[in-house]
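Reagents: none. Just compute today. Oligo-1,6-glucosidase ima5.
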Amino acid sequence: MLATLIISLTGTVFIYQGQELGMPNFKNRKIEQIKCVEGTGTYGAIKRDYGEDSEKMKKFYEALALISRDHGRTPFPWSGEKPYAGFSKNAKPWIDINESFVEGINAEAELNDENSVFFFWKRALQVRKEHKNMLVYGDNFQFYDLDNEKLFMFTKDSGDKKMFAVFNFCSDSTEFSVPDNKASYDMFSVTMQTLMASHIL
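Predicted 3D structure written out:
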């Protein structure tokens, strides 16, 4: 869903290494595995002031799992080959590999699976290219119904055309109203299932 949102936004799309595979943040790393200076420094200060088993330390680890700079530094997972995901055979990388490579989140596995996140990105970017006047160059971006807790919606323009985008970030079907009920709308559905076959206009 986030990939679909990204390709709908005006401007240049940047895809960072691992993002095209859907690589998640690492999980449950010990402080000895952390290379981020800010992370190790904060750990030391909390341990000194509050102790290893403090509530502050628990919150530190929760924050580390979300925002550590090390998430973006882990070596790229080329394959499911242990121990280093095809990044190297014998030389241990300077930072530990993201463990998700053994779960199929690696380049080799995804390039051989047309239902993978990699192929979703590939097809999504093709859709963006086919509709670049609106998706890449569209302007007059405006949020719509920001109070809606389930949907993220916006409109933007390209010449005399207007796009109304709706992103459902919950698992339930959700009703919504359109900005202009007198306008005529062409359905353009971009979903994981849609992009695995063909997109609908």
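The mean pLDDT is 89.
Action item: order primers for follow-up constructs.
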